[in-house]
Amino acid sequence: MNPVTRRQFLLGAACVPALAQSKLPLDEFQPRSMLATAEHPVTRARFPVIDVHTHLIGFPRGRGIAQEQVAQILRWMDELNIETVLNLTGGAGENLRRNIAELQERHKGRILVATEPSYDRIRESGYPAWQADELKRAREAGARGLKILKYLGLGLREQITSGPLVKVDDPRFDPMWEAAGALKLPVFIHTADPDAFFTPIDSFNERWEELAHHPDWSFYGKDFPPKPELLEARNRVIARHPKTQFVCLHVANHPANLAEVASWLDQYRNMSVEIGARLGELGRQPRGSRQFFERFQDRILFGTDATPNGAEVPQQDLKPAMYQCYFRFLETLDEYFDYSPAAVPPQGRWRIYGIGLPEEILK
Predict the structure, then answer these.
(1) What is the rounded CA–CA span in Å between residue 250 and residue 271?
(2) pLDDT tens figures, 187-203
(3) Which residues have C-beta within 8 Å of that of residue 51, sequence separation ≥ 6?
(4) What is the DSSP letter of 54?
(5) What's the pTM value of the predicted model, to 2 decimals?
(6) How many whole angstroms separate alpha carbon 167 and alpha carbon 122?
(7) C-alpha angle 40/44/46, rounded to 5°?
(8) Which of 20, 203, 228, 357 gives a 20 to 30 Å CA spacing to 75?
(9) Under 8 Å CB-to-CB from 209, ≥6 apart: which residues?
(10) CA-CA distances (angstroms) from residue 189 to 15, 273, 337?
(11) In 57-126, where does DSSP find H-type helix?
């Protein structure tokens, strides 16, 4: 039997032309799992939830949020058993005070607001002391935390639109870090981004599809520092300010290497982590994730990185279906399910597994 006849025999003669001509655009590839596994969707959290990582305020910060939208969010919170959400991007100055009045004061106990540094003044000679004093004023106004965007390290430059990037551990911020500790304001810090965003957007990049849709999310090339350098600078800040509590968002932005994150938690007692927008990473290593949660259960915070309508972070739309993915991951041992309600997985074409945490850890 010659090779062509043998292939026809093995595959079926009718399959050969179809296979030879078949080309399916990746965007149209929507595989349906053939696995028959037990499913235990979780519509409501077993215990009251505090989400420490939301972005209720739109960009720019002055845009605010309509009270009708806030009312809908509160209804969802009641439905899902979410006790409190923390809006991290509350801005500074008058914007902060307005956001505190409209969200935190109007909805006491349900919505909290954090402040942010005023980076536009960094080029002024008295900035370090002024920013520390401004943080005190923000605390007096009612701010409940300090949010550091990845802009520090990847966007802020010595000149407005040019010059070298300002480093995460720039000493100009030391008075601010110290003030945060003295004021008992936790620092919610986002440094760097997923590993794939620092590698070439090529056929070996597991998040190629995501980056193809958002090429501006890539930090590969140009003058961006390597990811390890960014994380090392952040860790130096944590080490220099042991009386300040740092919550390193997105599992310290290194969920692909939980062993290294664990080593940091062992080394820095003033460091905690949060899990927002990282179910896709945690859920595909369920045994390692379960061990991580068991070991550091009192230093892992619940967060989602949710926005009211998904405008800034499309995969984290603040609606029940998104939260229910988190609850299912944390509360069940379900296998091979979607980590996002989006039709196309936003971070990569894989599924996740639940880690079924015991009630004491969930509490």
Answers:
(1) 13
(2) 999 999 999 999 999 99
(3) 82, 84, 85, 86, 302, 303, 304, 306
(4) E
(5) 0.92
(6) 12
(7) 85
(8) 357
(9) 26, 344, 348, 349
(10) 54, 10, 30
(11) 67-80, 93-99
